[in-house]
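Section 5.1 Outputs to date
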Amino acid sequence: MVSKNIIHSKKKLIYLICCGIFLGYLCVQGLLFYWKIPLTNEALIDIGVSALCATLSCFVISNTLNFYLPKANNLWKVLGFSVILSFISLLILRLLVRGYATEAYMDFFDDGIPYRLLINFILLTWMAVIIIIWNVQEEAQENSLRKQESERLLREAELFNLRQQLQPHFLFNSLNSIIALIGTKPEEAQNMTFQLSDFLRGTLHKDEHSLIPLQDEIEQMKLYLSIEKVRFGHRLNSVITCEESLFKSTIPAMLIQPLVENAIKHGLYNITGEVLITIECQLLAGMLQIQITNPYDGEAANPKKGTGFGIRSVQRRLFLLFGRQDLLHTEQQQQQFICTLTIPQYD
């Protein structure tokens, strides 16, 4: 669509310039003739034919340059082509004028050949410069569009790759838990299967790089936490604090889940007893801030050490989507690990 619009605009520009050259040539040459000689029929025909030849020459060079964009070191070829075309147009003009003009008028015509040649050369060169500048801008715009499309496809591929790496880990853990519950607690295994099905259905219908309402993301996290609750039983407790006024805020789909999964892993594996995972949402200075807190005992005998992929994946997604590196912050305060996620909100 963009290319068609550009081509249409270029053709329109060429036609307008050629019409302007024709009318301008008529006016300027008419004034010069009026100043030099009486405007006889020969002079009027000469003026019209001269304007037509000059206009056709400009049209020829403009269409030629549509198929050839000279580099900086080949601009002399354009100048040479302008000189040759000026001579050819002037030769055709002389042959046409000679067919009806008297010998006296031909002498007048021949005396003005250097001036006519100079005017034609200037017009053709000016036309060539306009078309070359237009073509350079057009090429730069097309290169920019191709670059943007290439970068977009690359971002989508990387986001898809991140998604493919995140989901199997959670899926395998859930399936192992279901298998373990089938023999001892078949009803819980059945409920967990339904919950897992609903959770995966929700993730499959969400575009990885799209923005969704915060309410949908929270509902998905509640479903995720209910599945993990079946896995870990009474040891896992969670509290989600979010005012209804924030439900319409937007957030990239499935952005919180890796952070909550990270909080559960480091919270439950490093601490014996019950663990509380909190998720707090608030709006600060036009930015949605989500804080995920889990207990963390760095002095445990065998602290659980992860690969850090969950946090890195969220950081990478935020950079790909918003172009910023400062939207995810982690810190440890006493025996609490706090992960703060900031999402820009746009009207």
